[in-house]
Amino acid sequence: MCGIIGFIGNKNASEIIYNGLKHLEYRGYDSVGVAYIKSKDVVIKKDVGKLNEVNSKLNFLDVKSNIGLGHCRWATTGAVTKENAHPHTDCNNIIVVVHNGIIENYLELKNDLIKKGHNFRSDTDTEVFSHLIEQKMKEGKSFEEACSIASRIIQGTAALVIANTEEEKLIGIKIGSPLVLGVSDFGYFLASDIPAFLNYTKKVIFLKDFEMVVLDKSGYRIYTIDESAKMHETEKKVYTIDWDAEQAEKGSFDHFMIKEILEQVDAISNASIQDVKKLEKFSEKILKSDKIFFVASGTSYHASLVGSYLMNKICGISTIPIIASEFSHYINSINDKTLIIAISQSGETYDVLEAVRLAKNKGAKIFSIVNVNGSTLTWESDDYLLMNCGPEIGVAATKTYSAEIVLLELIACFVAKKFEEGKMKINYLRNIIYNLTSESSRNAIKDIAKFLRDKSNLFLIGRGLLYPTAMEGALKIKEISYIHAEAFAGGELKHGTLSLIEDGVPVIALIDEATKDSTLSNAREVKARKGIVIGVSPFHDEAFDFWIKVPECNNLNPIAFIIPLQLLAYYLAVLRGFDPDKPRNLSKSITVK
Ligand code: G6P
């Protein structure tokens, strides 16, 4: 999705906005723009392209000002053009807006505003907001009142930072998309995500939907906006977050993705440090519920598939993993005896939040597994466990996938009264991940990537816990290297896909002790049709053209086996000349339908 940032204070805004955008670029990178307020006037610079490209053309840093806004775009409404890049203004360049989300009723509002004489310059939904505020102010409302009224008129999702150049104020409003307030002794920040201002402050106020922050140089005020658009001033707690600014920096690594793959050694132990009382609550709820659904999207959905196998294997409990955007089709079977376990790195994925809200309306309880503390999912849940991974910046999720599986394993072990045993196994996995990510292991994978770099299709097979692992491996490969990769349960190969196997077609076979005989026989079927078999397993077999050795880790095999596949995807992207941190058309956090 898009990233938004605003700053007001007594430091140079241009540097702060530029640095903030660098940390938000993972949310959108098809166009970028900034606005600086100076002597009641506004300077806007925006264009199509990534931050460094547009900055080298327009120089975002040459304006000295104490109030600024910035936006990096992942286009939804309106093509990728300079005119559609944010910020957007009203007719007189007094109201300046950056927005993340989708205003569903924008056409109707736009037509009405045009009739009232407003002059639109873009095809975006966002521009409606600046003109709507202008209109309400024309009708006699204050800037604050106009913003709160506009927030109740629009339908859809929005996180907005709005500047008033004449009053030298910033307003932030959260409606379904993420927005946090950063507080420091030299100024205030509004941003989609904490890493945007982590270099400047660790003091954060988490905002809820229909909360509005008014910022001027003297301080901040927070209001809740009720359904009739009335503002009620509210006190909010300031949290000090324990994320390290360095965690949000690439440091000496070429990309965030490789940094985050290597960080998994620590990520899994950090994820395993959990409050036993919370695990007890999860466990009790699982045992008392009639039906248990996992709800998640993307990589988190793959983790939920692993979770479903683990719950069955470790404690004999059946669970139903559902892709969040499909959840509404299951709504008739949800009631007050249902437990939803929602899994989300960001805690802001629209599909997940929508599923959770639907389930809550039917009386279900919501327990979640989340990385970003203070995210919307944490507020929407009856209880939640944190992954403790620190910020994950690479669009392709890596360390949070492993952390999600650690938590699912811990929950299952807790239910089965095997908690200590489960925890010990996770500690043991640390050394294994260390070896799987060592320089020599990375070089071996790089060699396989060199062999695969010009292939246009590849397949992955696995059974049991290694089937969702194959799915996650395929997702990593296709999303960043753009090679078509598809995963199959080993047993399904003979039901169709085998017809695609011919001379030179690569198949990555994930094989552990539990699935040795069956998946090896699939690998041999591939070999017999002259396919190339890349075996990922604890043992070698003559069917393998390449072998990636992974030690047997039983229930934790999904973590051990995904490491070489993450590395393979990474090297394939790099060798093919693509930026693994910013895959085309994708975004880290999808806050729209
Ligand atoms: C996007 C990201 C994926 C992620 C998915 C779910 O599609 O590109 O990497 O797995 O959203 O995100 P969540 O934050 O809910 O885990």
How far is the N terminus from the C terminus? 11 Å
The main sheet comes to: 8 strands, antiparallel
- Give the number of helices: 17
Bound small molecules, by name, code or SMILES, are:
6-O-phosphono-alpha-D-glucopyranose
Find the count of extended strands (DSSP E, 2+ residues). Answer: 25
* Rg over C-alpha atoms, rounded to the nearest angstrom: 25 Å
Q: SS-based structural class?
A: alpha/beta
Which shape, going by the Cα principal axes?
Answer: globular
Proportion in helices = 25-40%
Order of strands, widest sheet: 3-2-4-1-10-9-11-15
State which percent range the strand residues make up. 15-25%
Q: pLDDT below 50 for ≥5 consecutive residues: which ranges? A: none
Average pLDDT, to the nearest integer?
Answer: 94
Explain what the structure shows.
This protein is 36% helix and 24% strand. The strands form four sheets. The protein has an eight-stranded antiparallel sheet, covered by helices on one side. It has a seven-stranded antiparallel sheet with strand order 5-6-7-8-12-13-14. Strands 17-16-18-19-20 form a five-stranded parallel sheet, with helices on both faces. Helix 7 packs antiparallel against helix 13 and helix 15 (466-481) runs parallel beside helix 17. The mean pLDDT is 94. 6-O-phosphono-alpha-D-glucopyranose binds at residues 297-300, 344-346, 349, 352, 395-397, 586, 588-590.
